[in-house]
Amino acid sequence: GGPRPRPGQEVSVKVLGALEDGGLVERDPRLSFVPGNGDVVQALELGVPTMQPGQVALFLAAFPYAYGRPGRRRRARREPDVPPEAALLFEVTLLSVRDGPDPQAMSPAACLRLGGQRRDRGNFHFARGDFAAALRSYRLALSALDGAAAEDEELREQRVKCLNNCAAAALKLQREDEALAACDAVLRISPDNGRALLRRGQLLAQRGRDAEAEVDLRRALELDPASKVRDAGCGTDGGRRSQTPGR
């Protein structure tokens, strides 16, 4: 009974997930998330908004809507692995629906927790190769961190990590303007961030802005002589390296 979740609302669900052989791989008595924010597998993202409070539903999810081609590696001793390309059967009970959290009304500690959860989810998507979903999660993490009324070193550090991760995901999607903007944002917060200097230097070199690229790449090399700047070269040919997110 009751209305289905609307966009932006937060839901709480009881979830059981099993492999086709019956092995239980998911058990959460109260999982809370906002559908559309990329915080859970797509089977739940797509399925739960069709439900009403109190309803119990079964969702049979092909592997792209569960843990994807790589599956899931165990994160805790009591949590079983999900094999690669595994279909899952989810039993879901929709417990409640409420308005989503307002970062502007949250404490700095709560903003940090929410931002960290969303960044972790972005890393999960990045590892699966779903770079668009990863970028969306990193942006949502930034919006949570930006809601903190107070400012401290930990918040700045988390913003820098999220922005660097945005740059890495944008590069995978060949959105070089977005990657460059993310690097600029990092360096406004942390002018000596080696990861951002290296990425920006490479991007500038690819655009033929060699003098600016040389400044960034030389500074990155000064900060970390063991870095891969030497391979990129000051006056680089613009060859692109694999970019991975900061954890």
Quick one: biggest sheet? Answer: 4 strands, antiparallel
Number of domains: 2
Q: Name the poorly predicted regions.
A: 230-242
DSSP strand (E) fraction?
15-25%
The residue fraction in helices comes out at: 40-55%
The SSE string, one letter per element, is: EEHEEHHHHHHH
Explain this structure.
- The chain has helices at residues 42-47, 108-128, 131-146, 153-172, 176-189, 194-206, 210-223, 229-232, and strands at 9-19, 24-33, 56-61, 88-99.
- 44% of the residues lie in helices and 16% in strands.
- It contains eight helices and four strands.
- By secondary structure, it is α+β, with helices and mostly antiparallel strands.
- A four-stranded antiparallel beta sheet has the order 2-1-4-3.
- The chain is elongated, with a radius of gyration of 21 Å.
- Its EC number is 5.2.1.8.
- TPR repeats lie at residues 194-227.
In short:
The chain contains 8 helices and 4 strands, in the order E-E-H-E-E-H-H-H-H-H-H-H.
Entry keywords:
247 residues; alpha+beta; 2 domains; elongated; Chitinase A, domain 3; Serine Threonine Protein Phosphatase 5, Tetratricopeptide repeat
How is the secondary structure organized here?
Elements: E1 9-19, E2 24-33, H1 42-47, E3 56-61, E4 88-99, H2 108-128, H3 131-146, H4 153-172, H5 176-189, H6 194-206, H7 210-223, H8 229-232
Antiparallel strand pairs: 1-2, 1-4, 3-4
Helix pairs in contact: 2-3, 2-4, 3-4, 4-5, 5-6, 6-7
